[in-house]
Design goal:
alpha/beta; Amino_oxidase; oxidoreductase; polyamine oxidase activity; 16% strand; FAD/NAD-bd_sf; Amine oxidase domain-containing protein
């Protein structure tokens, strides 16, 4: 009797899907035990990895960083395929925050003596929430930060209830506790900015950076307890010179032509909830899963690995689209609903010819003649959107953007990050609206002649309140822009996941549970493992990252390999 090979279909050709395909194919290719297929709804591979070009530079529209090189599988692959060096300029981010200048709205340059204490406070509060700053490690100066953070956590927890404490409420309580404990001189020369408002603005700038790291639109929705479960690899965070797509292409390169099918969007997944349907006359019945595609075609499978984003899954259960038939169990849908999934977009801007390329003409108006630096790494401290003193020309969607900087030193291509409501607004704006809005914002901040770090002034704040004429004179212009649109792309509907208040790491584990579970080593017991789930939102400690997606793809491939090893079809 001829035994039909099990067919495994992977939905999605991103990091998780291609890692699973790579593992399944390379582990069994010599034995030819599986029919393997990857179906991708879009016209390219990579998913939320999308390397592109802008202004002659290689850029990343999606995933950008290797988050820690110590032990990272992504870094290991990048080393093996020699992707960490390139002759073409790339988004290497070498103009880092060590060289940043911090300017308050209105063009007021803030001295490190006012910026650094708030930066240190914010970083130590985050380290406390992540479990890195504890009694054992808090020695010397850190001991006072540990006590402050512990008090802030206690007060914030009592206010919100132990099970509903957010990172946002903890951070704000930390700032309040700090300000109560410190008596410091008032600032001069900062127009309407008081010391307290400046500290709150600097703190808010760091909160906005944290929003881009987590994808949470509001840190009040980011769960405090889960923060200590999140794991980072040690070592520096770097970008990939030859592009993140080189990692994807390496994973796909071992797969035979035709195994990856592009333009195949799945609209419905039918699976068998009733165990008895998987058995006929004591033997396995026909393949238990049926995939329906947007072109009307149908494909049957024994196992399907679903790697679509959490945003797509949220949309499916919210709209009751019938993507899964029968519907997913409540344990799965409740986890999908509770977890957070945000939108993070990148905006690339090309400085106009007057300002762009190498040593910008713009630079000569603002930098000492002996400086060889171009546009600075700019940290922006905004007034509150409700403040009467805010500059009306700055659009609302710019006000929670923390930074603007060249993608490498002296590049004429600048980058800024947008999150949540502002990120979605950016997607619908016309290029001209974006150019005008960013130009007005930057001109408001870079109004004065001494903006570079290392200014000879020792004042806490340098500025000139009568700068409207100067602002118009030095207006920064951009010739073109390029933005990502992850929020409205129907294949993603967002960027990456976070643990929201009301959810927990248990929900990430629930996301990873297959349907039905593999409860037996009998090959025909119940057609187990019909639907498996992979992707960054299914990893408890590395969610939101490409390496989390990589690990999840390996996990599900190994789950199937172990299953067939157990039932005797596959044996190493």
């Amino acid at each position: 009797m001829v035994v039909k090979k099990p067919r495994i279909v992977i939905i999605g050709a991103g990091m998780a899907g291609l890692t699973a395909a790579n593992k399944l194919y390379t582990a069994t290719a010599s034995k030819d035990l599986f029919e393997l297929c990857v179906v991708e709804g879009g016209s390219r591979i990579g998913g939320r990895i999308n390397t592109s070009e802008f202004g002659g530079d290689r850029i990343e529209m999606g995933a950008t960083w290797i988050h820690g090189i110590g032990g990272s599988p992504i870094h290991k692959i990048a080393q093996e395929i020699h992707s960490l060096r390139s002759d073409q300029p790339w988004e290497c981010m070498d103009g880092n925050t060590d060289e940043a200048i911090t300017i308050a709205e209105g063009g007021f340059h803030l001295h490190p003596s006012i910026v650094d204490p708030i930066t240190k406070l914010f970083n130590n509060l985050m380290e406390y929430s992540q479990g890195k700053l504890n009694e054992a490690t808090a020695k010397g100066e850190l001991e006072s930060y540990h006590k402050l953070a512990a008090l802030a956590a206690k007060v914030a927890s009592n206010r919100s209830g132990n099970n509903n404490l957010s990172i946002g409420s903890f951070l704000r309580q930390g700032l309040e506790t700090y300000q109560i404990s410190k008596e410091q001189e008032e600032v001069k020369g900062c127009g309407e900015w008081s010391r307290k408002l400046l500290e709150e603005g600097i703190f808010g700038m760091h909160e906005n950076n944290q929003r881009t790291y987590t994808s949470a639109d509001d840190l009040l929705t980011l769960d405090y307890s889960a923060e200590s479960e999140y794991r980072m690899f040690p070592g520096e965070e770097i970008t990939i010179a030859k592009g993140y797509l080189s990692i994807i292409e390496s994973l796909a390169s071992v797969l035979p032509p035709g195994l990856i099918q592009l333009g195949r969007k799945v609209t419905r997944i039918e699976w068998q909830l009733d165990e008895r349907k998987g058995v006929e006359n004591g033997c396995c019945s026909s393949k238990p899963v049926k995939l329906h595609f947007c072109d009307g075609s149908v494909m049957s499978a024994d196992h399907v690995i679903v790697t679509v984003s959490l945003g797509v899954l949220k949309s499916a259960i919210r709209d009751d689209s019938g993507m899964f038939c029968p519907p997913l169990p409540s344990s799965k849908t409740e986890a999908i609903s509770r977890l957070g999934f945000g939108v993070v977009n990148k905006l690339f801007m090309q400085l106009s010819p007057k300002h762009g390329g190498g040593k910008h003409e713009y630079q000569h108006e603002h930098v000492n003649e002996d400086s060889d630096k171009g546009f600075p790494f700019l940290q922006m401290v905004f007034h509150s959107p409700q403040s009467e003193t805010r500059h009306k020309k700055i659009p609302w969607w710019m006000r929670r953007t923390a930074t603007l900087f060249p993608i490498y030193n002296n590049s004429s291509v600048l980058l800024s990050w947008f999150v949540g409501e502002e990120a979605l607004a950016l997607e619908s704006l016309k290029d001209e609206e974006i150019i005008n809005g960013v130009s007005s914002t930057v001109s408001c901040f870079l109004q004065h002649s001494q903006w570079q770090k290392g200014s000879s002034s020792h004042r806490l704040c340098n500025g000139n309140a009568n700068s409207e004429e100067r602002s118009q004179e030095n207006e920064v212009k951009f010739s073109k822009v390029l933005k990502s649109k992850w929020g409205t792309d129907p294949l993603f509907l967002g960027s990456y996941s976070y643990v929201a208040v009301g959810s927990s790491g248990d929900d990430l584990d629930a996301m990873a549970e297959p349907l039905p579970k593999d409860s037996s080593c009998q090959p025909c017991a119940s057609s187990p493992l019909q639907i498996l789930f992979a992707g960054e939102a299914t990893h408890r400690t590395h969610y939101s990252t490409t390496h989390g997606a990589y690990f999840s793809g390996l996990r599900e491939a190994n789950r199937l390999l172990q299953h067939y090893h157990c039932v005797g079809i596959y044996n190493n």
